[in-house]
Amino acid sequence: MAYLLIGSLILTACSQQPKEEKEETEKEAPKKEAEGVSLSQSQIDAVGIRLGTIEEKNLKSVVKASGQLEVPPQNKAEVTLLMGGVVNQVFVLEGQHVVKGQKLATIENNQLIQLQQDYMSAQSSLSYAIKEYERQKELNDANAGVGKIFQQAESTLRSEKAKVAALSRQLRQVGVSPESAAHGRFITEIPVYAPISGTIGKIVIQTGSYAEPARPLMSIIDNSKVHCDLVVYEKDLFKVKAGQQVYFTLTNQNNREITGKIYGVNQSFENESKAIIAHAVIEQAAKNNLIQGMYVSALIDVGRQTTTAVPSEALVKSGGKEYIYYLVRVNDASEKKQDSKRDEEGPSGKSYVFEKAEVVTGVSDLGYTEIKLVSELPKDVRIVTKGAFYILSSESATGDED
Fold first, then answer.
1. 365 within domain boundaries
2. Looking at residue 286, what is its pLDDT?
3. Which of 122, 136, 367, 379 has the fewest CB atoms within 10 Å of its CB?
4. Domain residues for 98?
5. CA neighbor of 351 nearest in space, from 359, 360, 340
6. Whether residue 290 sits in one domain with residue 183
């Protein structure tokens, strides 16, 4: 019985020992409090850190949009023929600048001779019809003719005039002078002229090939009148209107910025996207070497609004997010501190503790940037308006050491 009692006492002592050791260990290593970045007065002065408040500023309000450059329909053309034929000569190259009315190519067509013959014949018939009408009119005025014959002569004259006018129009459409055809100076080549001034695009014909009617021979585009079609979504629809200033960023030209103005806004949605197209003319488009199809990002100036803002210098980026630093507290020499900490703080004995708050940024104007706080801060909180990057660097260095 005595042996059993001694054994139970030993087991009890062994079971209690680890618990007591654990409690003692916890007392020796107190829990570390999570703090922000602490800077001494000397550090604050050396770096030039400044404190301020979150302000209400009247900043420029913008609508973000994207789109691509387009050319108006009147500034691009497909060169086609009304009459087909064999390509005799091509006078231009792709990428060459041409002016309106410049000869681009010639097309050989034997039917053109027949058309000119018909016109010459119609001119002769018209001349006869004019003389017959004048003769019958004289007889009718002198009551010596038959009224029915005069009416027939008048009808024939109108018919011949219409025939000549139609054939003349056909000749002009294919680039042939009716006056030359009337004098028997026939041509067998159809000249092809540039309908607009611009730059030659893709040429699909070559010497000796057959050019079919109504099929494009080449294209011409005038990029000096390029404009931008911007996609504006439903939530911003009623903010955008004609006359507003637009700031473009060319994504494929090192984010070069150009300016323009909204000149029109569509009044119907594009397909099922719940977005409309706003058309913007670009200032000095001819000097900016712009090409149809370029993608752009744009900011549309829709006026000014009062918003919460901080100096742009107050913002720092870390881990893909944006932050501002605010003052949590100021420690002074009256508080009990370790000697090493006191030495670090310098002669003044003050240290400033900062923490960061995540924000979502908006528009920037006049050195200020609009912000929205992710988590609420005290009303009169003091924020770092200058030198925030130094605090971020100090925090990063402390994190690396830990």
1. yes
2. 67
3. 379
4. 76-107+190-219
5. 340
6. no
